[in-house]
Write a structure and sequence with these properties.
Layout: E1 3-7, H1 12-23, E2 29-32, H2 40-50, H3 63-67, H4 77-86, E3 95-98, E4 101-104
Parallel strand pairs: 1-2
Antiparallel strand pairs: 1-3, 3-4
Length: about 120
């Protein structure tokens, strides 16, 4: 099974999730999503696997969230996805995709259900 982690090495939860995956013997495909953001199509696929709406994947505590006025703006799903592609720091992390499933590693143990 292929395992992919959308990873931010500066995030402690992301590092802990990556370590947990590796402890289970998997060699994940690591995507540093701040350097290589997912495309809109990739993000839509991840959202389907997570069974979440785009708004559910936003990091509301990020300065960029406030700068863009996202707390009060009413945007369509495609508009939110476009903003996340343009501003990947808005995407909750880490996200792990394994097979046809995905999980957010907050806490890191959440990903065990899909490994």
């Amino acid at each position: 099974m292929t395992v992919t982690i959308y990873h931010n090495p500066r995030c402690s939860k992301s590092r802990a999730t990556l370590a947990l995956i590796e402890e289970r013997g998997a060699k994940p495909n690591v995507i540093e999503y701040l350097k290589t953001p997912p495309s809109a199509a990739e993000l839509k696929a991840v959202l389907r696997k997570l069974k979440l709406k785009p708004h559910d994947l936003l990091r509301t505590g990020e300065p960029r969230y406030a700068e863009l006025g996202l707390q009060t703006r009413k945007l369509a799903d495609d508009e939110l996805i476009a903003l996340m592609v343009e501003n990947p720091s808005l995407i909750e992390r880490p996200i792990v995709v394994a097979g046809g499933k995905a999980a957010i590693g907050r806490p890191p143990e959440n990903v065990l259900a899909i490994l």
